[in-house]
Amino acid sequence: MGFNGLSADEVLLSRSVNGANSLVKKKKKSLVKSFFANFADPILKVLLIALGIQIVFVFNSGEWLETFGIAIALLVAVTVATISEYGSEKAFERLQEQASATDCRVRREGKVYVIPVSEVVVGDLVLLGSGEKVPADGYLISGEIEVDQSLLNGESKEAKKFAASTVAEQGEKVDYLDKASVFSGTVVTNGEAVMLVTAVGGKTEYGKIAAELQEEMPTSPLKVKLMGLAKLISIVGYVGAGLVAVAYFFNLLLVQNNFDLSLAGEQLRDFPFMFMHILRAATLVVSVIVMAVPEGLPMMITVVLSTNMKHMLRDNVLVRKLNGIETAGSMNILFTDKTGTLTNGKLEVVGIVTGDGSFQDVSKFDRSCKLASHIGTVLRFNSQCEMSNGRAVGGNSTDRILREFSESLKCPEILKKISQVPFNSTSKFMSTTLSDGRVLLKGAQEVLLPKLNKSFKKDGSISSSFGKAKIEKQIDELSKKAFRLIAVAIDDVFVCLLAIRDQVRPESVIAVNRLRSAGIQTVMITGDAKATATAIAREVNILEDDEVGLVLTNDELEKLSDEQVASILPNLRVVARALPSDKSRLVRIAQSLNLVVGMTGDGVNDAPALKKADIGFAMGSGTEVAKEAGDIVIMDDNIDSISKGVSYGRTIFKSIRKFLIFKLTINFCAIVVSIVAPLLNVDTPITVIQMLWINLIMDTLAGLAFGGEKPQAKYMTEPPKRRDEPIINRYMWTQILLTGFFTSLVSVLFLISPMMVNLVDERGPIYARSAFFAFFMMLNIFNSFNARSHDLNLFSHIRKNKPFIWIMGVVTVVQIGMVYLGGNIFRTMPLDFVHLLIIILMAFMVVPYDLVRKLFMRGKVNVTT
Fold it and tell me: Hey, which of 2, 151, 437, 647 has its CA 20 to 30 A from 132?
C-alpha cells in the first residue's frame, strides 16, 4: 500500500474481509409482532383469561359493559407498551443517520478522492482537516490535529493528536487520550493529518455503541412486581371461585334439604334441575374470578402515569416512556455523567489570580480597570481566532475561550501586529509582537512564570514586588479543584493567571444531597483524570470529607471481576478515565444485585447505558441519540429535576399500592360474602350484574381518584424499593386482611340482621337486595378514605387531591341513583329514606374501626406504603 493508499482490488479485498463501514442492524421486530408480544405481560395474561370468560358470559347473559371495560384496559396498556418499544429503536436509527450523513477524503493509488464514509475500508488513508468528521477508527501516520471527542467520552476538552512513529505505538487497548488514536464520529477542530484506518462499521467504538443500543430493554421494576401480583391474584381468584361453587352446591343439596342425603341424591339424578343450577353456579364462579382481578389496574397505571407526565412537564421534565416515572421512584443507585450534567458542559474563564496572589471570581472582577485592559489586549491580539456573530472561530479550543472572554474586557480595538509565534506542544506558549515593541505572551504557567519577575497592579502600573510564592500557593489550591491555569504576560511583566474550568452547576450540590437523603447512591462516571474527577466529586458532595468512598480509574476497574465490582459497589463514588463500556458494565452489575439503576447523560457515549438502565435521564441540551435512548429528558439540564422525578415516581407507586389496598379489600369481602351467604341459607346477596357494576365503577373511577395524589416531602426521606420487593408489603397485607375480615363480618351480620329478615318478609327479596347493594357500596366508599391515607387524619393532604373528593362524590350519587333507578336490570328498587340513612350510618362503622386498627398497628408494622 505505502503512502499512495489502496488500489481498487485491495479496497474490494479489504471490504470482503473486514466488512463495510456501516452500522450493523439487527433484525427488527415488526410493530404488529411487538403489539402481540406485549400481551405476555403478567397482569394482562390474567385480564385475557378474564376477558375470555366474560365473552362466554356475554353470550349467555347479554351483559357487555364489563367485557367492554376489560377490552379497553387491555388495548390501552398494550398500545402504550408498543409505542414505548418503538421509540427506543429510534435511538439506533438516529445514530445510523448521523454516521452516514457525510463524505470524507481518502488517498487511493496516489490520488485523493471524496467518497461517502460508508465506502471507507480498513487500510484506507484518510485525510483529515479542521471541521471534518473522522469516518472510522485508526491512528495518525502524519500531521498534528486537535479533536473534539465529546461524542464518545463526553468531555468538552479537545484532545491533541500526533502521528505515531510506529504501528506499535497505537496499542490494542481503547484509550481516547492516546496521542495517536482517532475514533469514528469525532470531529477535527484544528490542524491537518493523515490517518490509517484500522476498524470500520460495527468494529469501531461508535459501532459498538450502536450495537448496544439494539439490545433488549430491561424488565421494568413495576413489571417485575406485577408478575408476583398476577400469580397471587389468579390463585386467590380461582380458589375463591372454587369455594363459592362448593358453598353454592352445599347450600343447594344439603342445607336446603335439611341434610337429607336421599333428597340430595334425587336432585343429583335430576339432570334438567342440576344443569340449570350448574349454569347458575358457573355464572357466579365467573363473576368471582372477574371480581378477583383488578381490571382497572393497567388502565389506572396508564392514566396516572399520563396525568403525572403533564405535571412533570411543567417542572421541565419530559417523560418519553411512561413506565419511567414509576421506575424513578424505585431507583436505588444513580450513575451520573459529569460533563453537562453535574457541570455546565463547557469550559470558561471563571477566576483570575492577580500579581499579589489573590484570587477573584470573574463575576466580581472589575472589567473596566486598567489591569482588565492589559488582559484584554493580550487575549484579543495574541490569538489565532477571529470573532464572528459573537463567537470565536479558528484556533484551538483554549484560544476560542480566551478570545470570547476578551470581548467583555475594556481594551484597545486596533493594534498593529508585527509577528506571531503560534502555540505548540513543545514551547507551550504563544507570543505576538506589536508595532510598539511590546511582546504579548500567554501559555502554560509552569513555562511562563519562572521567566517573570514583575507584575501589573490593578491601576495598570508595574510593581517590582511580585507575590510569586502566593501565586504558587494559589496554583496548588486551584489545581486540586480541577482548574486549568493559563498565564498571561506582557514582556517580562506578569499580568494574571486565568482559571479555566467546566464549572459545577449550583444546583448539583442540592440535587446530590436530596438524592442522598432519599437513600439513593450517586456515582459519577467521567472521562476526566482521577485528580480532576475527585475534585469535582468533592465539590458536589458525591465524596464527603468524612466518607470512605472509592475512586477508581478505567484501568483499575478492568482488573476487577464482576463479583469484585459487585462487592465494592456500595462504596463506589467515582469512576475516572471511563469508557462507554464501563457505564454499561456497571449498570449490568448493579441490576444483578436487584438494584433499580438510574443513569444520566447527554452524549452519544451515554446512549447504551441510558437504554440499559432501568431509568435513563437524558439532558435536554444533549444529543438526539441520548434523548431517544433515555426514558426521561431533563429539559432545563437541571440535575435537581431528577429528584423531582424520584418524588413523582414514589408518589405514583404509593398511589398504586393504595388502590390495591382498596380494591383487594373489596375483592376479599365480596368473595367471603359469596362463600358464606349460601351456608347461611341466604340467597345470592349480590347479583351478577351488581357485582360487575361494582367492579366497573370501583376499578375505573377509584383508580382515577387515587391517581390524583400529589408528592409529599416525607416521601423523599424514605428508603427506595428493591427491584424484587413485593408490590404488596406486610403493612398492606395487614390492612387488606383485617379490614377485609371486618367488612365481611359486618356484611354477613347485615344479611342476617333482624332488619334484613323483616325487609324480606315485608318488602320482598328485591328490596332487601337493594338495601344490601347500597350497604356494600357505601361500605367501600367510606373505606376508600381509609385506604387513601395511613395517617389518623383521613383528610390529610386531601385538598391537594381534589379529584378524589369529587370522584367519590360522583360515585356516591351514581350508586344511590342506581338503587333508585336500576329497576329490573340491576334488580333494585327505591329505598325508604330512613332505611337509606340507617344503611349509610352502618356502613360508616368501617371508619372508626380503621382508626382503631391504625392506632393498634402503629409501631408494630412499618406503615410506609
Answer: 2
Q: Which residues make Cβ contacts (< 8 Å) with residue 230, sequence separation at least 6?
A: 42, 43, 45, 46
Cβ neighbours for 399, distance < 8 A, ≥ 6 positions apart: 383, 384, 385, 392, 423, 430
Residue bearing the bigger pLDDT, 292 or 375: 375
Q: Could you give the percent of the chain with pLDDT greater than 90? A: 28
Of the two residues 688 and 332, the one the predictor is more confident about is 332
- Taken in order 381, 382, 386, 387, is the CA torsion positive or negative? negative
> Distance between CA atoms of 500 and 494, rounded to whole angstroms?
18
Q: Give the gyration radius of the chain's Cα atoms.
A: 36
Question: 189-211 pLDDT, tens per residue?
Answer: 888 899 999 999 888 888 887 77
Residues forming beta bridges with residue 371, ordered by sequence position = none
Distance CA 290, CA 69 (A): 12
Q: Is 695 exposed, middle or buried (0-12, 13-18, 19+ CB in 10 A)?
A: buried
Any idea how long the chain is? 865
519: left (phi over 0), alpha (psi -120 to 50) or beta: left
From CA 296, how far away is CA 290, in angstroms rounded?
11
Buried b / exposed e across 506-520, counting CB within 10 Å, b at 16+?
ebbbbbbebbeebeb
Does the pLDDT of residue 169 top 50, yes or no?
A: no
pTM of the model: 0.73
Of 415 and 100, which is predicted with more confidence? 415
**Secondary structure in 3-state letters for 196-239:** EEEECHHHCHHHHHHHHHCCCCCCCHHHHHHHHHHHHHHHHHHH
What are the grid coordinates assigned to 314, written together? 411543567
Which residues fall within 8 angstroms of residue 764, CB to CB, at 6 or more apart? none
Cα separation, 487 vs 754, whole angstroms: 97
Q: Are the CB atoms for 351 and 375 separated by under 8 Å?
A: no
Q: Residue 43 class from Cβ within 10 Å (0-12 exposed, 13-18 middle, 19+ buried)?
A: buried
pLDDT grade, residue 518 (50/70/90)?
A: very high
Pick the residue with more confidence: 523 or 291?
A: 523
Contact 90, 602 (CB under 8 A): no
Q: What is the DSSP track for 361-427?
A: EGGGS-TTSHHHHHHHHHHHHS-S-EEETTEEESS-HHHHHHHHHHTTS---S---EEEEE---TTT
C-alpha cell of 363?
Answer: 463575576
CA atoms within 13 A on the CB side of 31: 7
The number of angstroms, rounded, from the C-alpha of 303 to the middle of its chain's C-alpha atoms is: 19
CB atoms within 10 A of CB 337: 31
